[in-house]
Amino acid sequence: MTSAIAGVFLFRSQSMKVAIVGGGAAGFFGAIHVKLNYPAATVHILEKSAKVLSKVRISGGGRCNVTNAQASISELAKAYPRGGKQLKKVFPQFYTQHTIEWFESRGVELVTQADQCIFPKSQDSQTIIDCFLSEAERLGILIKTSCGVTALSQSRERLALTLSNEDVIQYDKVILATGGSPKLTGLDWLARLGHKIQSPVPSLFTFNMPQEPIRNLMGVVVENAITKIKGEKLTASGPLLITHWGMSGPAILVLSSFGARLLAEKNYRFAVQVNWVNEINHEKVLEQLISLSNEHSAKQVQTIRPYFLPTRLWYFLLEKAEIPQDRKWSEIGKKGFNKLLQLLTNDEYEVRGKTTFKEEFVTCGGVSLESINMQTMESKVMPNLYFAGELMNIDAITGGYNFQAAWTTGFIAGKLL
Fold first, then answer.
1. Cα 168 from chain centroid?
2. Which residues is 206 bridged to in the sheet?
3. 379: helix, strand or coil
């Protein structure tokens, strides 16, 4: 770089004015890193609502699952049904291990759960919010709430933002971090600028089963079930929670994430198959049942639960198999064993709708990654415009992965390359 060019760059970086549209996780992370990279720049966070970091506040049941302990980039990328391939290439710039170091270096103590989810030690999302607000104040970032952006246009080498109060302000660089839009119309303004848009549909939702009696087992948890969408290749495993409306838990949410578009096309009417014992070898399951029968032949079936199934679920499956609870194991017979085998390994339930977490909704869709230079997060159709977070067609399963995508993309966008 010649001294003349270096001088121009230094002048521009010192006088640079940057807007981050959206005061959520990705927006704050992007804003902080703009200021860290360009200390003399003027940085504004523009948030349309009255409060910032609202989703951070309620995420993880108010505890904020900031990231995941997964240290392998290849495995980490597999958690993203949309965007995983592209993130795999940029995670070396900033991924889970960097996130842990970033928060801990700012005094936020973190703890890792058995399921590899990482939370603040305080178990309170306010700790993360306070960290961001403190950094923003320390760096001199101006936060403007109740300040929506209604239009964006190019004005020579600058970008003009029209605000909800009709003011028009020009910026040198703009990072869009407005989060996922549940409706396609919410992305029309970006489409008009020339960006390719992937229609948004819900992801990470629970299954409604209004006609299924299993809802009466509300609160029952099976620690490691296998789930599958009938007739499709979609499968998942993990804890399954029975709710008053149907089924939830990671084994269901992962299915909804990877099957977001497919299930939307089915209008959320389909059958889910459940393997309650997490054993795909049916012969082994049958052997287990026969072994229990031989060992406890004189005992009633209700007293001996295969695979340590929850008691209420075992009673439910016995009723579904039309086997009286007081029947002895020696009296089950071949037909009874086959019924139990089928229910334990391939139980089936009709799904008729979904329930989304309204404040924590995650969308599949957004600005297509084809319209974004993923190495810099800059728009390919409008120079000096950058993206971060869920506004892009990136989403993940539960476990801190969606926040990690926000940190990674915010970090890269904040370089303003």
1. 34
2. 355
3. strand
pLDDT band at 4 (very low <50, low <70, confident <90, very high): very low
Residue with tokens 């958690």: 79
- What CATH number was assigned to the domain covering residues 11-202+361-413? 3.50.50.60
Please name the residues in contact with 267: beta carbons below 8 A apart, sequence gap of 6 or more: none
Q: Which pLDDT tens digit goes with each residue over 292-312?
A: 999 999 999 999 999 999 999
In tens, the pLDDT along 237-292 reads: 999 999 999 999 999 999 999 999 999 999 999 999 999 999 999 999 999 999 99
Q: What pLDDT is stored for residue 121 in this prediction?
A: 98
* Three-state DSSP state, 315: helix
Sequence-distant (≥ 6) Cβ neighbours of residue 60 within 8 angstroms: 117, 119, 125
159 to 162, 170, 304, 384: CA distances (angstroms):
10, 6, 69, 8
Q: Which two tokens stand for residue 2?
A: 């010649």
Cα atoms in the 13 Å half-sphere on the side-chain side of 117: 15
Q: Residue 39 has what DSSP assignment?
A: T
pTM of the shown model: 0.91
Residue that has been written with the tokens 């521009």 in this structure: 12
User: How many CB atoms are located within 10 Å of the residue 352 CB?
Assistant: 15
**Contact criterion met (CB below 8 Å) for 234 and 265:** no
User: Where in the sequence of the chain do the CATH 3.50.50.60 domains occur?
Assistant: 11-202+361-413
